[in-house]
Specification:
binds zinc ion, mainly alpha
Length: 135
Amino acid sequence: MGWDDGKKKKARSLDAVERDVWNHCRRIVRERAYAKDGDLYCYTCGAGPLVGSNAHTGHMVNAAVLGWGMRYDLRILRVQCYRCNIHLGGNGAVYLWRWLAENGIDAAQKLFEDIAADDRDREYLRYYLDELAVR
Ligand SMILES: [Zn+2]
């Protein structure tokens, strides 16, 4: 722990922080998928095992409409194939259907309330990164 560690941390750009947040999210989502299914399979179409650039991490809800507090919320992130995530725009209806079967309507209610109430700005990612880094 150097005398200027705190300064360095504060000086990091939000772009760099967001990149690290995303990398941690991808790592955690993959770890969960391996633990559950033994490999990476598309959450929405079942394709797999997915390797390399065909293994995406999908959001269920278009990230552009999510606030900064929910954009990288682990509840909504799952492994998807390139086709579902890119060509099918996330395949959201199937995603939601599977998510509901997996988590139940009460969890969905809570999730969408959290999405609607989220007013956190991008600075939140600095705090969230610290939280993700220890998981
Ligand atoms: Zn797929």
